[in-house]
Amino acid sequence: MEIAIIIVFVLGYLAIALEHPIHVDKAASALILGVGCWALFVLGVDAVPELLEHEFEIFKSENSIFRSDEMLSMFLEHRLLHHLSEIASILFFLMGAMTIVETVDAHEGFRVITDKIKTTNKVKLLWILSILTFFFSAVLDNLTTTIVMVSLLRKLIDDKQTRWFFVGFLVIAANAGGAWSPIGDVTTTMLWIKKQLPDVPIIVKELFLPSLATTLVPLAILSFTMKGKITRPQRFSDHDTNPASDRERMLIFILGVAGLLFVPVFKTVTHLPPFMGMMLSLGILWLVTEIIHRKKSLEAKRQLNVLFVLKKIDSASVLFFLGILLGVSALQEVGILGGVAAWLDSTVGNIYAIDLTIGLLSAIVDNVPLVAAAQGMYPIAAEGDFAMNGNFWLFLAYCAGTGGSALIIGSAAGVAAMGLERIDFIWYLKKLTWLAIVGYVAGAAVFILMSA
Length: 452
Prior knowledge:
Elements: H1 2-17, H2 19-22, H3 26-44, H4 53-62, H5 68-106, H6 111-114, H7 122-139, H8 142-156, H9 160-179, H10 186-193, H11 200-225, H12 238-241, H13 246-270, H14 274-292, H15 298-304, H16 306-312, H17 315-334, H18 336-347, H19 351-361, H20 367-377, H21 391-402, H22 412-421, H23 425-431, H24 433-451
């Protein structure tokens, strides 16, 4: 069964990577991958996997009224729904963020930023946007920041290949910026919440410079190799393209940005999942747009209404996300990811090498289950590298947060960018993977030198 699941996962992964040569949309391949892996798991299992025995005993005690022969199938369904709740929270978060960004964009709210960026020099523009992305990601998170920056780049760069390069590089910057903040990347958040890294000042102090190096070193390389100027998209006059007034444009921009910034605050105060804060922000923005446009003509309302914006959301990207996350959760249930973590522990041994390998593996499979496996394998020690705020956990936060940039499919930010801009997997592999790895190694070197 395990071999069959791995084969399906690898074949699905190849189909996603070869989306353009085989002319099959990656969302279709991802859905077959995800559902196929779970179907093989459910059909091929005749006993509870060893790593799930404890959960199965709890499940049996809570559902003792059912027949014992029904327990296994019910338990597997329960495990699927457990993962689906986590996946759904990510998808709702993604849809909420995309809708807020598209609503601001429908009002041309991002002109507040794009009109202030005058340069057309590629290198200067990449530096400006990369630094903005790096710090935005620490405050918002890498996924939300990527969605915002994709929208900005559509206003700044007309040529598709040039825009792809900028988007791909900003994924690297977003992942690096999220790694040093407890709310910037989901893996750092996991380590913060579960007390491996309970002290925020220590996280920032120890990870800021390595994360910064991950962005600055590739930027420095591109400063010597990138040439030319960007071509901006043609834009007609406001009256021809948008019925929103300047005051409405500014109001929606402020509300949209404030709504995105409100999400981590809402999570910290209520301890509810981030998608709840995102949905609240979307609801408030939706209410305001309904009120300020209530007296406009039907045609004007149609262009600015959130209902119209929802029709523009890329549903294929959401389904792509669903398929990928289902596939990874199946690997986790079977125990493949936990087995990989155990193999690393027994064969590699060195904590820095283990973390570096986990980071690169997170470019292939999701970093969340890999970090969860590491958290389960290594209890928090009283002192040393595995103690609270120890080097193992700090370096794990850096590696898991930035290593996924090596592939476009290796992080939530990358998957979102791939879906929104239809970036080709092989194109990213050729153009940006080497820069991501150079930055990853440079940041790791900075961390190791700081820890020496």
